[in-house]
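User: I'm putting together notes for a lab meeting next week and I want to include a structural view of one of the chains we've been expressing. I don't have a solved structure, so I'd like a prediction I can at least talk through. The sequence is below, exactly as it appears in our construct file.
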Amino acid sequence: MTRQRTLARLASDARPHLPSIVTAIVLGTIGGLLAVVPPIGLGRLLTGAFARAPNLRELYLLLAVIWTSLILGALTNYGSSYLLSSSGQSLIARLRVRTFSRLLHLPLGEFDKWRPGELISRFNTDMQMMTDAVTISLPQLITTSVTFLSSFAYMLYLDWLLTCSLIIIAPLVSLAASRFQRLISSATTRSQQRIADLSATLAEVLGGQRVIKAFGREAYETRRFAARNDEYFATYMKLTQFIQTQPVVISALTSTAAAVLIWLSIHEVVLGRLDSKNLLVYLMLLVNLVNPVNRFASFVGELSKAVVGSGRVYELLDLPVERADKPEAVARADVRGRIQFESVDFAYEPGAPVLQNFNATIERGEIIALVGPSGAGKTTIVNLVPRFYEPQAGRITLDDIDLAEMRLRDLRDAIAIVPQEAQLFRGSIAENIRYGRLDATDEEVLAAAREANVDEFANGFPDGYATEVGERGARLSGGQRQRVSIARAILRDPRILILDEATSALDSHSEALIESALDQLLAGRTTLIIAHRLSTIRRASTILYIEAGRVIEMGSHESLLASGGAYARLHATQFA
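Assistant: Thanks for the context. Below is the predicted structure for the 576-residue chain, given as structure tokens.
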């Protein structure tokens, strides 16, 4: 995203805070103007003090004016900084929520393209750069800019010819600042990419601890992380070099200009074009001029980083969302559960079809087992039902209504999913069960838990159902997590159930309890099961043997065995 477009979007998003921003700018302008008062007042105070007949009343008045300007300057700068910080933080907070919401509404195909570490980096590091800019750099930039302009204007008033000599050095300062700004923006982009790589590596390692330990790859992962860390360190130090060098170069140029101006000012006094009484004021204003220029370079560098970070955040906000409901979308609160696939084609990538002319009919309340080799398209089939993905050809109907014509919320309200690896969220056991239906009463939560045999372990904890499950349910065993997941689905009371074999990696005790829970869950519901175990396959009323994205065989377990086809061969290989 270009810098100009990013700034335009920031300005548009900041429009609701315009009154506060304008007030902050006015206060910052007043603070910048007041910064000119002490040099002018101090010059006149010293001039008056060394006069032959000092006017003490006038001197005291000048001293009061200087003191008042310092106090008012501090107050106005505080007000400007507070208002800008409040407005900026509010803007960033809304951007953070919008970005989070956008990620939740991404199509799964788009979401899978992003590494979790990179998304986390954009949430944390890029947002932090924006925060630093609006709370520190932007308020001070306004004040220093006004201080610079007002000092320059008064210096023109004192001696326009001398002050105009600043124009000679100004293009050099501007060129240097512009060059460093481009270098900082480019280096910031590279640095953010490296921290995203580092975060992604960290996320992978934290999520794969068991595999790493099982294969003894601690040293290998440490070397891999160290390599990513070195890349980030190198790019960050390059960025730091540019940021730290910029003020030095700008300071050297402005200091050189100041030295020349001091010599010229003395020369102007000698020639009589500058009043010696105003020389001190002029030199103090010159200091007032140089300091903002030096600080201005640093602020511009920080703001350049923030613009880069903003552009990366807007890239997330520009990602596509799931297709919105059509205006004429059909509302269905009374889903019965008959599903039909009609000549469905689907591919994740062009030229690599996963489903080809797929046809199947699943009657209301029927339990269907999807069986077949890895990569046959079983997971794709169940992901098409809740419209996680859209078919490229053909259509899928629910109760004879095309899924594309239904309201997405109604469709998903009628579906519950029990994945093979139960996904729990940080919170209590009861909160994770209630996730299936947020308005459920405590009695309904406990009833669902009893049906899923959660009672068997939950009552054994000191805190019962208030027990915290930990990150991703880490404090519970695999079987316990799966039962909580089943209770969540029972509480939802779906018409359609999607089940990725829930007992494939459990001990016999947990498997028996979950099989019992599944008997409660499957009753009367249209169910699609990705089956890996014989016990689950036999529970199905119909088996679809899938191969290369097509239904090769269909029938009951007994009939398919008797036919001696592909399913019988798979059965003989896996279960004989």
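A couple of points you could mention at the meeting. DSSP finds 21 helices and ten strands in the chain. The CA atoms of residues 3 and 420 lie 45 Å apart.

User: Perfect, that's what I needed.
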